[in-house]
Design brief:
single chain, about 100 residues, mainly alpha, 5 helices, elongated
């Protein structure tokens, strides 16, 4: 089981990798600054909606926030997302045909 501390540490890690302030991430994710600071300090447990919003702001895959070690920077790029969506649609269409 993953600990809330791991999630908090990973959020801080990725925020610092992007050179974002806590205020910037909180504002962009639609989360109060006070709550976000509590999150990074491991004092609150985020809901999945918070995880998704924060991952989007940090431009990372949400699963990276749950990993015990951060070994690589898996950035999501618009082209990558678009290609992934196309692949999913192709596979779904192949199953239907």
């Amino acid at each position: 089981m993953i600990s809330p501390k791991t999630v908090s540490e990973n959020i801080r890690y990725w925020r610092e990798q992007r050179n974002y302030t806590q205020a910037y991430v909180a504002d962009q994710a639609g989360i109060s600054r006070r709550w976000y600071i509590s999150l990074e300090n491991g004092m609150v447990i985020p809901q999945i909606s918070h995880i998704l919003a924060i991952a989007e702001v940090l431009n990372i895959e949400p699963d990276l926030l749950f990993k015990k070690e951060q070994k690589s920077d898996k950035l999501l790029k618009e082209g990558d997302i678009e290609e992934q969506v196309k692949q999913v649609i192709r596979k779904a269409l192949e199953k239907l045909l």
